[in-house]
Amino acid sequence: MLKYQYVAGKIKQLIYQQQLPKGTQLANIDGLINQYQVSRSTIVKALNCLERQGVIYQVQGSGIFVRERKKRGYLNFLQSHGFTVDLDDTYGVSKVLNVDLIKPNSKVKDNLQCDDEEDVYFIKRLRYVDGKLYGLEQSYYRKKLINYLNKEIVENSIFSYIQDNYNINIGFSDKYFQVIKLDAETAQYLGLQAGEPALCVEEVFYTTAGEPFDFSTIIYHYENARFCIQNHSK
Amino acid sequence: MLKYQYVAGKIKQLIYQQQLPKGTQLANIDGLINQYQVSRSTIVKALNCLERQGVIYQVQGSGIFVRERKKRGYLNFLQSHGFTVDLDDTYGVSKVLNVDLIKPNSKVKDNLQCDDEEDVYFIKRLRYVDGKLYGLEQSYYRKKLINYLNKEIVENSIFSYIQDNYNINIGFSDKYFQVIKLDAETAQYLGLQAGEPALCVEEVFYTTAGEPFDFSTIIYHYENARFCIQNHSK
Fold this sequence. Notes:
The structure is a homodimer. The first copy, chain A, is of the alpha+beta class.
């Protein structure tokens, strides 16, 4: 973790632990430099990071203020796979349906920019938050980049595992989504009827070096999954 | 427009006009300084801006590369109201259903942080892209901040008008969304049946000074509206 990320985490923790209400003014930059004993550029980076995360906003010539916190029960739609939740929310759990090593079909090949011969892990999981079924996730990972996965690993956060074991970090992603009517098979997984609505999200994740490593489709349960984006225009 | 935004626009224009394929390496920072005759910090800001927009990615120690462009026909979900489209896409048009000055109900008051006595403009529009109906939008603007709106103004971009006439810029927004089944009235507006699916997006927009000025709800047509987010982890 970089120093500015550490400081950003500390400031965020302070805001949430003290439950500072929206509009609360934080110390100015000099105050924060003094408080955290880091350089000006580290503080500036940390503040920009928190601004992008929707935790604070900076008003030029006026100060640094706390934003309204995301309402509970809404998934942060910009976090990886939509299942990363905030500090005091409970974490999601997974029921793993399968972990298979397969040859990719043409859609997977296109999205992962791989060839016919390349092996990919195919993982199917039901995702739960607070005991509620949020969605069915089907993911493809390139074996070339992530050499080993098994049921035990994918019961937990795959991204944490990948980061820790293969030093692969998410650089960016392309997320495409639309509302659909469920087919009979998917409906059954979600405990719904065919024809009922769902949000279908397809996402390709790239490493910081720009290489696609994960192509995932999540079908979200329309009653259980609700979403939030705390956007910033900068 | 700030200098870095101008330079970012120029680089983006170049990438799109020349249709540079994904993975194309751009000139390095020194090359770009030379090309655009601006300072290093302006180039760095412009590149970070393009990175956040999903146009490029920067690989440390390696270079600056073009990302895959958003597929056509998908709305950029992070842009204002979801109807801002890219350079060579066609722009959305609106059919205005009403523009009324009203007293806010309690939901609107909560979202806009205003009191009972404050007047708000209530605007209802059907939004079209490429001649297709994408959604029904219902927006509330605080008269205190945006003193005058009429039918002619809201047929076009309200945000451009507000920016030009009141010098109000979007600082940030809170976007909450979920999949719903349509009620009979909304279904009729969208040319669909009651009970059919839709994406319902509620968003509060704040000025750069942190004041809420617009609360909007958009119900998107599930067959016509599809979305994209080109996310970046930084």
